Write a sequence for this structure.
């Protein structure tokens, strides 16, 4: 039996300033970058494919801002200062982290989360906008490829803020989700024994576990020799296909190389990798669900006995 699909409700906040002195073009048009709305729809389709249809995002609100996000120390670019820095590829403001509470206030997201009207916030911006790839807020928030968002502890439920850069493509968005998954699944399994830590078993790759590779992680395919080495043609033995049958793991392995996951294409690798996340009904003897997508989207976290 398959689990029921998850339909996370998304608030999208797009910073896409209009440059009046450059013909009234928006930043993504002026730079020849990706349309953030197109990226959002491609990402939604890719995650649905990667999750075997179990994750069906719904954008319930869309906000587009003609301006730049406020940074943590109060600094804000304008059209002239940003263009000058970008053309020189230097002089960008430091520190460059965004003011996350200001971002949340911009769309009244904390109220929406508290009233259970939205589940996550997607930020669309540009280089040096100051976004983390992902960050978690709310009561009980923990490291999610970034520190918990301070000042949100009064919200009784956790939420995730994703930071997307529309200079880049959907492969980078999937990488953001992959790091989010790594952080959350590490936390889910953190108090389990080595033999019961399925996340650590899933992420084995040949360089660190010779002859015992499984699916690897976001940066390392089963045969990778270094970070981002998704185009490695060397053959290694891997149990990657066995994870498609989870929880009926047999230990069966075969020889694989980059031809399995797109010959070096980031987007193809990340879809291939996430398709192998356990996505079945039921739970392990330790009470951990066989559908990891539910945890990655914060469902059922509080039901885990070893979860803080």
């Amino acid at each position: 039996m398959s689990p029921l699909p998850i339909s996370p409700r998304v608030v999208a906040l797009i910073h896409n300033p209009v440059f009046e002195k450059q013909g009234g073009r928006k930043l993504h048009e002026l730079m020849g970058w990706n349309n953030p709305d197109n990226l959002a729809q491609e990402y939604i389709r890719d995650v649905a494919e990667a999750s075997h249809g179990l994750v069906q995002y719904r954008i319930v609100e869309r906000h587009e801002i003609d301006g730049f996000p406020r940074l943590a120390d109060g600094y804000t670019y304008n059209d002239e200062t940003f263009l000058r820095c970008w053309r020189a590829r230097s002089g960008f403001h430091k520190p460059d982290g965004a003011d996350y509470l200001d971002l949340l206030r911009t769309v009244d997201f904390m109220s929406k989360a508290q009233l259970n009207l939205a589940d996550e916030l997607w930020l669309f911006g540009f280089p040096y906008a100051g976004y983390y790839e992902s960050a978690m807020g709310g009561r009980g928030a923990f490291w999610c490829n970034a520190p918990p968002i301070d000042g949100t502890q009064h919200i009784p439920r956790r939420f995730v803020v994703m930071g997307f850069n529309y200079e880049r493509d959907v492969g980078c968005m999937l990488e953001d989700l992959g790091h989010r998954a790594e952080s959350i699944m590490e936390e889910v399994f953190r108090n389990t024994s080595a033999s019961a830590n399925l996340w650590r078993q899933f992420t084995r790759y040949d360089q660190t576990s010779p002859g015992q590779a499984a699916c690897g992680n976001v940066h390392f395919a089963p045969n990778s020799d270094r970070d981002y080495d998704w185009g490695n043609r060397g053959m290694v033995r891997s149990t990657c296909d066995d994870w498609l049958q989870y929880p009926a793991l047999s230990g069966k392995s075969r020889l694989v190389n980059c031809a399995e996951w797109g010959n070096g294409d980031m987007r193809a690798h990340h879809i291939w990798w996430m398709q192998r996340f356990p996505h079945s009904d039921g739970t392990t003897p330790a009470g951990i669900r066989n559908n990891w997508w539910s945890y990655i989207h914060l469902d059922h976290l509080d039901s885990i006995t070893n979860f803080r």
